[in-house]
Amino acid sequence: MADPKSGAGTSQTKPPPPKESKKKDEKKDEDLSEEDLALKQQLELYVERVQDPDPGLQKVALESMRQEIRSATSSMTSVPKPLKFLRPHYGTLKAFYETMPESDLKKYLADILSVLALTMSAEGERESLKYRLLGSEGDIGSWGHEYVRNLAGEIGQEYAKRQTVDAPIEDLMELVQQIVAFHMKHNAEPEAVDLLMEVEDLDLLVEHVDSTNFKRTCLYQTNAASILHSYIKFVKIKAELKVSTRYLPGPDDMLVLDIAYTIYLKFEEYANAMQIALLLDNMQHVRQVFTSCEDVLKKKQLCYILARHGITFQLDDEMGGDEEDREPLQEIINNSKLSESYLTLARDIEVMEPKSPEDIYKAHLLDGRASAGGSVDSARQNLAATFVNAFVNAGFGQDKLMTAPADASSGNTSGNWLFKNKEHGKTSAAASLGMILLWDVDSGLAQIDKYFHSNDNHVIAGALLGVGIVNCGVKNDCDPALALLSEYIGKEDSSIRIGAIMGLGIAYAGAQNEQIRSSLTPILNDAKAPLDVIAFTAISLGLIYVGSCNEEVAQAIIFALMDRSESELGEPLTRLLPLALGLLYLGKQESVEATAEVSKTFNEKIRKYCDITLLSCAYAGTGNVLKVQNLLGHCEAHLEKGETHQGPAVLGIAMVAMAEELGLEMSIRSLEHLLQYGEQNIRRAVPLALGLLCISNPKVNVMDTLSRLSHDTDSEVAMAAVISLGLIGAGTNNARIAGMLRNLSSYYYKDASLLFCVRIAQGLVHLGKGLLTLNPYHSDRCLLSPTALAGLVTMLFACLDMKAIILGKYHYVLYFLVLAMQPRMLMTVDENLKPLSVPVRVGQAVDVVGQAGRPKTITGFQTHSTPVLLAAGDRAELATEKYIPLSPILEGHVILKENPEYREEN
Amino acid sequence: MELNHPVLVSVKWQKEVFKAVEIDTSQPPYVFKCQLYDLTGVPPERQKIMVKGGLLKDDADWSTVGVKQGQKLMMMGTADEVVKAPEKGPVFMEDLPEEEQVVSLGHSAGLFNLGNTCYMNSTVQCLHSVPELKSALVKYSHSGRSNDLDQTSHMLTVATRDLFGELDKSVKPVAPMQFWMVLRKKYPQFGQLHNGVFMQQDAEECWTQLLYTLSQSLRSPGSSENVDAVKDLFGIELASRMHCQESGEESSETESVYSLKCHISHEVNHLHEGLKHGLKSELEKASPALGRSAIYLKESRINGLPRYLTIQFVRFFWKRESNQKAKILRKVDYPLELDVYDLCSDELRKQLEGPRQILRDEEGKKLGLKANEKSSGAKDNDVKMTDAEGSSNASGESSATTPQEGAPSDKETRLTGIYDLVAVLTHKGRSADSGHYVAWVKQESGKWIEFDDDNPIPQREEDIVKLSGGGDWHMAYICMYKARTV
């Protein structure tokens, strides 16, 4: 309803109804209420008066018209009445406008025309914008939201048009400034970001955040930051959507994130800024965050974020202050206390009691079908038990096979179990000690020490590997792993060499350590070195230099590949070389191109394989739809010459698509199609790809698919499916998967190879008794840990040829999984970094990007007290106001600060 | 010289930190290690000291190592005993010769299907589970062919012996090529071709024929009585009474069969009923009194029990319309423990009573010792009585059976008329000449194994009695029971 007051206020002279109105009009008028009719007549009068030659009368008419429109625009349900009644006169006014001389009045009319164009202008005419630019440039918000929104849309189109003809855009940008300011003021931040993206000037955002910030109160500051966070997510989604329709070049989203980083830094939201810096993989930014941050406690939180991400980072004076301040910070980054907090969690959840493989197999639940015989040890089953024991008791420091107390009745039992493994099995057994003592370098080294003095080369190799595993993700000033392992790199025995080299790869993944590079690269081009040593050297270098694009390492691996003879190129181990090369470019997108070009010169046998592997690695974790399509295209071809590149292509789909939920779901569906139409080598890789997509995240549909495939007639498909069942359930203790695997263990009780896979999968499901995850994504699924992904990918590539590697004598590649192992916990600590138990709500995360207001971020929550386990897709929030978390994302270690405004009730 | 200044470092060893350890830089690092030996008890040769990414060598020069005042060093090493391999390494299954792997496997191997030969495979698997038959076959090798035996029977017996031996020795499935060839030679009907492939056959026929051949060849030639090992194991003595209602004539006869038939009619729901049914039959034969053929009622009773009681479910009948052996799908339950006492003749029943009482007592003791103790006073007499009775019976039995069987090994064990299920041959499908035959055999360990050609699958005992028919699942066709003896 129009405001009767305004109508009455402006009507001094009420004219008689115009006679020329037709019958039809009269009829229509009759439908209108008396008030509306009055309004209509009033407006018609103004239109007439505007055309009056007298400028004074014109002015009054325009003013009144504006008044009418303004007072009405607030109603949003339908086209406002004044606009509706003015519609028939739009043409008249437009025509009159053209005849008017240049004056303030003309601008006035332009303003009104601009508003009228909101409903009248034909599609693509952009008249609203046109008249706006011609108009008086008054407060843009005075015409209401709808008008601004419409204008913003037209600006986007106009901008694109002007860009193509290279027309100046200054006038537009001025308007953009106004609109952005308006949006920011009115909680329409996504629209502002949207507009700025369309006019390709996101930098403006920083300015406007500032001005808003300036005016607003302190309270708003913190809120603004959280809203800003949603901008970034919003922008990300925008970018993803664009990718799916039109490929948005990489630098664009980099720019968006860069802006976000600047904003966070400006608001002193260092934790968020750090996350963006890591997302951009920009060490310069990471340093800047440290130098900008003054608060030591906040710096500690930053260190926790870095530690979880698993990168090697050295603080200097500028970043960490003097040595006394720096040391505790560096200690956090080095993960020195990770073992301690993990054990705190384990004690809190009361799972310290070591578990034996039999506790995991639960054979008593399989009546009648339990393992037949059992009087004689099977080397393969003992090896499986070794792995199960290692995975289940990972990080707990005690188990029932390797570390069982020496004063037990049978004497030194650990020695006994070690020697219940055969030949290379002893390597894995000795190394499993490293897994059990994971992250606890001090006692780990002490316990492994005894194996160094063995006279069995396999045991020494295992000890070396174990040292590497213990040091995985943990850095130490003395570099014990480097000191111990580098001694053995050049040894005669190739199993010892592999143990040392692989140990270095695991301990220094992502460290980009020059010293190791200079000692490992010569091996690659050593004509006398056996193929397996070369393959593991390449993988270790790939891990140490993961995502670094290091030229020298790339060169060395390329030469090693070129040196391979025709027959060697057919070996499954040789295929680890292209993977190593790929790891160097993990997630680095275009940077891989030069190397990919070189790979085209390779021997035909490996060329395609190398090409696809490089592509998969370079775009891993980007969600780039074009690359997924490209890889799918490779899977369509029917191969005749026994080529092997389709396996990596299938894995590549998973590596690229795992970045975000939507793409992930879509690729699960594509993989289903591949299963139905693909050839055998594709079908063998599909379960592994599914395993990577849903790692430590047992989605029911994927579980069903894998369960079906685990009975496949092709035993390699079945093996891959079984392993993948373990991967998707890794560290979840998922009862359904555990049941499936138990039944599979009786189904395959006779098939030693498949039974081995089932056992490994069972061990994985109970990884760390359910306290660990293999998911390389962390921090609200926002950040991807490169070393974790590299470890997973290496293991999966090895699984592409299960028989030759995992079931052969290189089963210890399973230990590459250690790179991805992280406690799936929320551990809250006080300002002295001591564990602090507080109530938290844990529930399913809800996507709140782009939603208005302050929506609930979790659903179906339960309240627990920390430390608490977080499942895939879970999010936690504090259930008390007493503390303020220093990180916006409650995952891993979070430092809590007491809330000064908190008042205890009662 | 500043080198002579003692350098103080802290050394971390396991969880301990030794602060302010003095290094005399004029002495070789070995001296420093000896210092640490005093602190930690780790002998110098077992110490590994890490200095910034490298190990400290015993003869290194401190100036090149470059230790700084207050530097942190890390030492690794324990005084623990070095792990030694046990004198005798464990034996792994993978390393064992095949025969021994079988033992640890707990069951014998499967048999490859050579093209619709599942009927043969399942028959062989069932018979293979009879150890007495195996030992009789082993003995056969020594005796050689007797003159009255034809060549093909001899070959079949040898082939059976070899196949049984192979099954016992191997882990992997066995291909019964030789046996299959000889079987076809001996019984050409099994070589029937249909569209160029061998046809599926009736397992019962194979079973009967094979047993017949073996019974021919396994007579011990040395003995004048011509003892028949197969008959000893499987033969059932039936005493039949023929009664003609019309004329009132009665005659009786005895016969020896290798299996009892379980006839399946509408009233039969249980094996026992079927067996009873099978022992009564009507037949038309010439009546000497009437001078024409008349209906005779034949009633049979068991007069002598075997150690292995074979029961055939008469599931197949010739269906003229479809020109095939059609199958009766009716569900007929069978027990894990079968008592044939009431099918026996009065004479046999008397013989059985003694052993049965002993068996009952033994079971009673096992089940409830307490109950026995309580009524021990009253029981005493009973025991004595039964003892006496038993002994008299035993002598009676042995005297009765000796002329028939003459097997000296039999003397210690006496039959009770109670039998335990040891093997089931099942059929799945709608006619005898099609579908699939599978053998379910109880192993010595007490576990049941389903031998589906080359694939032995462990099964639970409670699932075995579920093969009683009434659907399209496997259903029992031939059951083999083993006598429970005392």
Automatic annotation (TrEMBL), chain A:
Keywords, comma-separated and alphabetical: Proteasome, Repeat, Ubl conjugation
Protein origin, superkingdom: Eukaryota
Region (Disordered): 1-34
Start and end residues of each RPN1 N-terminal domain: 43-365
26S proteasome non-ATPase regulatory subunit RPN1 C-terminal domain sequence ranges: 849-902
GO molecular function ontology, one term from the record: enzyme regulator activity
GO annotation, biological process: proteasome-mediated ubiquitin-dependent protein catabolic process; regulation of protein catabolic process
InterPro entries according to UniProt: 26S_Psome_Rpn1, ARM-like, ARM-type_fold, Proteasome/cyclosome_rpt, RPN1_C, RPN1_N
Oligomeric form and interacting partners: Component of the 19S regulatory particle (RP/PA700) base subcomplex of the 26S proteasome. The 26S proteasome is composed of a core protease (CP), known as the 20S proteasome, capped at one or both ends by the 19S regulatory particle (RP/PA700). The RP/PA700 complex is composed of at least 17 different subunits in two subcomplexes, the base and the lid, which form the portions proximal and distal to the 20S proteolytic core, respectively.
Function: Acts as a regulatory subunit of the 26 proteasome which is involved in the ATP-dependent degradation of ubiquitinated proteins.
Family that this chain belongs to: Belongs to the proteasome subunit S2 family.
Protein name as annotated: 26S proteasome non-ATPase regulatory subunit 2 homolog
Species annotation: Corchorus olitorius
From TrEMBL, chain B:
Subunit structure: Interacts with calmodulin (CaM).
Top-level taxon of the source organism: Eukaryota
GO molecular function: cysteine-type deubiquitinase activity; proteasome binding
Name the record gives this protein: Ubiquitin carboxyl-terminal hydrolase
Region of interest (Disordered), residue spans: 363-412
Family: Belongs to the peptidase C19 family.
Catalysed reaction equations from the record: Thiol-dependent hydrolysis of ester, thioester, amide, peptide and isopeptide bonds formed by the C-terminal Gly of ubiquitin (a 76-residue protein attached to proteins as an intracellular targeting signal)
EC number: 3.4.19.12
Protease is among the record's keywords: yes
InterPro entries, per the entry: Papain-like_cys_pep_sf, Peptidase_C19_UCH, Ubiquitin-like_dom, Ubiquitin-like_domsf, Ubiquitin_CS, UBP14-like, USP, USP_CS
Compositional bias of kind Low complexity: 388-400
Function in brief: Recognizes and hydrolyzes the peptide bond at the C-terminal Gly of ubiquitin. Involved in the processing of poly-ubiquitin precursors as well as that of ubiquitinated proteins.
Single Gene Ontology BP annotation: regulation of proteasomal protein catabolic process
Ubiquitin-like domain mapped to chain residues: 7-76
Domain USP, first and last residues per copy: 109-484
Biased composition annotated in UniProt, kind: Basic and acidic residues: 363-387
PANTHER family to which the protein is assigned, alphabetical: UBIQUITIN CARBOXYL-TERMINAL HYDROLASE, UBIQUITIN CARBOXYL-TERMINAL HYDROLASE 14
CDD domains: Peptidase_C19A (cd02657), Ubl_USP14_like (cd16104)
Enzyme class: hydrolase
